[in-house]
TrEMBL record:
Species this protein is from: Terriglobus roseus
Family in the record: Belongs to the FliD family.
Protein name: Flagellar hook-associated protein 2
GO annotation terms (biological process): bacterial-type flagellum-dependent cell motility; cell adhesion
Keyword tags: Bacterial flagellum, Cell projection, Cilium, Coiled coil, Flagellum, Secreted
Amino acid sequence: MSVVGINFGSATSGDGFDVTSTVNSIMTNMRTPETAWATRTTTLQSQDTVLSTLGTDMSSLSSALATLTSFDGAFAQKEGATSDSSVVSLTDATSLSAAGTHTLTVSQLATTSQQHSSAVAPGATLNGSLSIQVGSGTATTITIDSTNNTMSTLAKSINDLDVGVTATVITDSSGSYLSLTSNTSGAVGNMTLDTSSLTDSNGNGISMKATATGADAAYTLDGISLTSSSNTVSNALSGITFQLVGTSSTNVTMEIANDTGSISTALNNFISAYNTLTSALSGQETKDSSGNAEPLFGDQVLSLIQSQLSTALAFSTGNSGKSSNLAQLGITVGTNGQLSLDTSALSSALSTNFTGISNFFMNVGDFGQNLTAVLSGLGNSGNGALALRAAQNTSEESSLADNKTKLEARLATYQTSLTTELNAANEILQAIPQQLNEIKQIYAAITGYGQSS
């Protein structure tokens, strides 16, 4: 801390000194520790930014890994194809489905019950009632009144009642027809209609004619004869939905396979996330273009993360029937610590040892689950290494801010006192010439020396 002096020139000049600038110089000198605190705070905040970035990168890696380790992740995805899409099409294969080949023949497609009325002449209105029943459900009777005594208002009334059918009106030169279609396909959706009391204003009875009868689809799957009320079949094979679109007396093949494309994509995403993290880690071990060390240069948290990741990647298992290490999947570690994937080697491994590879990522105690635990212990949440390191910085930043607050409080009190004292001293200095003059006058009065003749 430098020494601050007071420059007031000649003591007998009466000029005194500049109290404000003197106080400011003293206070600046006493705030010297704040400079070091501010520098340290800036360093900590730079570290916080890097720690946050590393935490984000590690979180991205954990998410990419989760796609490979979760029950419904990449290894559970399926894809499928059929030998004749004019007979059957595969619409969905979930993680519950199993890879395999199935044979199918379709003798009959499911149909939906449909009926239409006789024509009602233009301008004629309706009288009486109409009864509608779908399958074994309860019949609903619709009584005709002024709100539904035309074909269009009757169709609206039926639809508003939601009785399990959809009503439309078809019109041509001969009049209007009421068309009813069951909302349920197959035999269970057959409609029973009673129009015996329904007439028009011309005295004509209105009859209904079946356009289509509801019937179940009939098909054979893997030699088993089955039926379905809908052409969309979702309960025959676990996790698989297929659509019957035509009939065939010869076998159609439907193949469900593991979606190796999704696995390859997931592994590439994992590798990309891993390489991003390791690049960020190694980037902290260098200096910038100005020769300044990066914020976490030499920090122990870097070596901890790099060491644990390296150990986790080297994980292997000797259990029979499993993939034993990443190299068997075509994943290798370069001299720069970056991962790379040989897609040909991966494809070969998946075709010959799919179960072993999926176990390598998904089984408890194997590579994937082990790496998941390692990343959790290193991350920016809970007691993860990055979280604890960031908390350490936060604590120190808080302490530095507290130090500054306390120092400023003390200096504020001191500045007030110092200003008062220096103002008093300045007044004394400024009064010296007057006091000297008074002494001279007293001396002259006593001695006569200095008096004018």
